[in-house]
């Protein structure tokens, strides 16, 4: 085990909120290898965000351990090993779009010219050209989320923790950013842990889909996705893609998540 | 921020401005007319209760040297107290926000102290600093400013959206960075609304402080001695000067606020 190439190694992780309160996570074991793209999917409230927050050392687990790049999560955070996209955009109102994107770069001590160049690339990536000088509250929800994605990608972290980053976007933008994210992932060789509610998005993006069960959150099953890389728009039309979507959907039904995922399932059938 | 709306022409803008200000100007004019004619001529209000507006203006012109000298003395007291009280309060709030247990322990006392009628100490401060010293009035003004600024600044510094702090933590930001880049900017709206209140309190403190001693030329003394000599127009002129000074002081703080908070939705939407 000591020579593993795991970027994230989760052992016997549990999280109880409050004294004797909600058990959000119970007995989670998960290894994420370098260069993997792992999606977490599961009914609302099953602890996906909580798991991501623990991996990011934002909250502490009640039990168990998380190692990132072979070190405790805390050390990894202090080494700036990961970029995070929260479920909400979390932008700073007093900063313009450009300055919000530049924030992690400022923290890393990049100089002004280098920051400006990177911000320009990022603004282009998320198609926010012309909005650099706007403030967050002048943007739509989807635009705000794109700023938050650009900010997380700006410093090319080796590990990306993304909590439903595309949830607020329209289908077209979402599919385009899916492809962009895969391109960045392939180019930088980064590792991604990605929370989503969309079965087809999970299958399209991931190398593995982790299906979680509702309270207390556990890993119910893991579906390896053997679709060829690089994924393209054509990937969504392959029979294997539909087989995998069906497998993930059945795993979700098996954990009793029918009510939540049914709408998404019909959406997938239409696609 | 009107990238989409067509820019209105100069005449349109002037028309808008007139329509916006006209009601206020009309009310102001009616108020002065009522003061000048309705009260003394129709309702028979005696001069010692409220002299005619024109008499007050006449006193204002005739006694302008005395009034301006008094105004300047009292303004210095108020401004000194404002700077001292608010400055110490902001510094204290930063310390208390940084060491929360300490702040939490002191908070109830701060709130209680906030309810003390500090003006009651005015005669005592003369005993502390000497009857003719301006410091007794500066102290009164400063203490009046201190508590609202402290309580509001502390509230602003501590009631920050937790995720915006968590994001900074994910960049391994130091406590100092969190203050500089998140807590302080997001506390500014609270700080400025407290400073506006403080500007008014400082003027009240200084003028009331004048009644109990200090320079014999201060504005409060002008009001007092003119009343004693039955020169009612002069005391009303002095009150008018104090009012204009108070409004100007408030306005100046509001202007600084608009500049410091130019990113804030409430400021930008107005233009
Ligand atoms: N700070 C907290 N204090 C108390 N309970 C919490 C806290 N955060 C989360 N929980 C509880 O933990 C459980 C898991 O929450 P979490 O936010 O991880 O769910 P999720 O899977 O991300 O849901 P969604 O898909 O709706 O975002 C929920 O039952 C929630 O009530
Ligand atoms: Mg969540």
Task: Compose a concise summary of this entry.
The complex is a heterodimer of chains A (271) and B (271). Chain A has 271 residues and is an alpha/beta fold.
How big is the Rg of chain B?
A: 23 Å
Q: Mind describing the biggest β-sheet of chain A?
A: 6 strands, mixed
Stretches of chain B where pLDDT is under 50 for at least 5 consecutive residues are none
Total of domains of chain B: 2
What is the CATH C level class of one domain in chain A, in words? Alpha Beta
CATH level-4 homologous superfamily of one domain in chain A = P-loop containing nucleotide triphosphate hydrolases
End-to-end Cα distance of chain A: 42 Å
- The amount of beta strand of chain B, in percent, is under 5%
* Number of DSSP E strands of chain A: 10
The arrangement of helices and strands of chain A along the chain is: EEEHEEHEHHHEHEHEEHH
Which percent band covers the strand fraction of chain A?
Answer: 15-25%
Could you describe the largest sheet of chain B, including whether it forms a barrel? none
User: Which CATH architecture of the largest domain in chain B is right?
Assistant: Orthogonal Bundle
Strand order of the largest sheet of chain A: 6-7-8-3-9-10
CATH topology term of the largest domain in chain B: MetI-like fold
What does this structure look like?
The complex is a heterodimer of chains A (271) and B (271). Chain A has 271 residues and is of the alpha/beta class. Chain A has a domain at 1-81 and 160-165 and 191-263: 3-Layer(aba) Sandwich (Rossmann fold). Chain A has helices spanning 48-55, 73-78, 97-107, 112-125, 141-154, 171-188, 199-205, 239-254, 258-270, and strands spanning 6-17, 22-33, 37-41, 63-68, 71-72, 82-85, 159-163, 191-195, 208-213, 218-224. Chain A has a 6-stranded mixed sheet, sandwiched between helices. In chain A, helix 6 links the parallel strand 7 (159-163) and strand 8. Chain A is globular. The N and C termini of chain A lie far apart (42 Å). Mean pLDDT of chain A is 87; it is low at 259-271. With 271 residues, chain B is mostly helical. Chain B folds into 2 domains: 11-45; 48-268, MetI-like (MetI-like fold). In chain B, 79% of the residues lie in helices and 0% in strands. Chain B is built from 11 helices and no strands. The mean pLDDT of chain B is 87. The A-B interface holds A 53, 56-58, 77-80, 82-84, 86, 88, 90, 92-96, 103-104, 107-108, 134-135, 137-138 and B 1, 161, 163-164, 166-173, 177, 181-182, 185-186, 188, 263-265, 268. Adenosine-5'-triphosphate binds at residues 17, 22, 24, 44-50, 87, 215 of chain A. Residues 17, 22, 24, 44-50, 87, 215 of chain A line the site of adenosine-5'-triphosphate.
């Amino acid at each position: 085990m000591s020579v593993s190439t795991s970027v994230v190694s989760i052992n016997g992780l549990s999280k109880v909120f409050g004294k004797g309160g909600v058990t959000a996570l119970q007995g989670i074991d998960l290894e994420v290898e370098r260069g993997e793209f792992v999606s977490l999917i599961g009914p609302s409230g099953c602890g996906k965000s909580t798991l991501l927050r623990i991996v990011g050392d934002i909250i502490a687990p009640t039990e168990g351990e998380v190692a990132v790049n072979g070190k405790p999560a805390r050390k990894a955070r202090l080494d700036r090993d990961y970029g995070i996209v929260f479920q909400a955009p979390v932008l700073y109102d007093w900063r313009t779009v450009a300055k919000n994107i530049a924030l992690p770069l400022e923290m890393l001590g990049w100089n002004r010219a280098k920051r400006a160049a990177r911000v320009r690339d990022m603004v282009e990536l998320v198609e926010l050209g012309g909005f650099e000088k706007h403030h967050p509250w002048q943007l739509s929800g989807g635009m705000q989320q794109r700023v938050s994605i650009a900010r997380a990608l700006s410093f090319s972290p080796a590990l990306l923790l993304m909590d439903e980053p595309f949830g607020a976007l329209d289908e077209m933008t979402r599919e385009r950013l899916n492809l962009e994210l895969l391109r960045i992932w392939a180019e930088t060789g980064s590792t991604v842990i990605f929370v989503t509610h969309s079965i087809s998005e999970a299958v399209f993006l991931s190398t593995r889909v982790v299906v979680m069960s509702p309270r207390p959150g556990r890993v119910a099953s893991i579906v390896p996705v053997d679709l060829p890389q690089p994924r393209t728009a054509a990937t969504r039309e392959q029979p294997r893609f539909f087989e995998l979507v069906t497998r993930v959907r059945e795993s979700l039904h098996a954990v009793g998540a029918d009510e939540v995922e049914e709408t998404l399932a019909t959406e997938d059938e239409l696609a | 921020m009107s990238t989409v709306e067509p820019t209105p022409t100069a005449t349109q803008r002037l028309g808008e401005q007139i329509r916006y200000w006209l009601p206020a100007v009309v009310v102001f004019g009616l108020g002065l007319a009522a003061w000048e004619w309705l009260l003394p001529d129709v309702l028979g209000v005696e001069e010692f209760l409220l002299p005619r507006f024109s008499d007050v203006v006449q006193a204002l012109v005739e006694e302008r040297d005395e009034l301006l000298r008094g105004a300047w003395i009292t303004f210095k007291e108020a401004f000194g107290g404002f700077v001292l009280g608010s400055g110490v309060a902001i510094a204290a709030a930063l310390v208390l926000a940084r060491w929360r247990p300490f702040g939490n322990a002191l908070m109830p006392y701060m709130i209680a102290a906030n309810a003390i009628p500090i003006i009651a100490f005015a005669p005592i401060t003369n005993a502390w600093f000497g009857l003719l010293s301006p410091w007794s009035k500066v102290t009164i003004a400063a203490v009046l400013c201190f508590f609202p600024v402290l309580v509001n600044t502390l509230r602003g510094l501590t009631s920050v959206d937790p995720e915006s702090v968590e994001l900074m933590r994910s960049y391994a930001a130091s406590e100092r960075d969190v203050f500089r880049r998140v807590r302080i900017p997001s506390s500014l709206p609270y700080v400025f609304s407290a400073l506006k209140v403080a500007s008014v309190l400082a003027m009240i403190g200084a003028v009331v402080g004048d009644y109990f001693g200090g320079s014999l030329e201060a504005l409060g003394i002008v009001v007092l001695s003119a009343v004693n000599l039955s020169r009612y127009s002069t005391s009303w002129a002095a009150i008018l000067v104090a009012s204009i000074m108070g409004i100007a002081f408030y306005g100046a703080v509001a202007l600084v606020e608009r500049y410091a908070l130019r990113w804030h939705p409430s400021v930008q939407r107005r233009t």
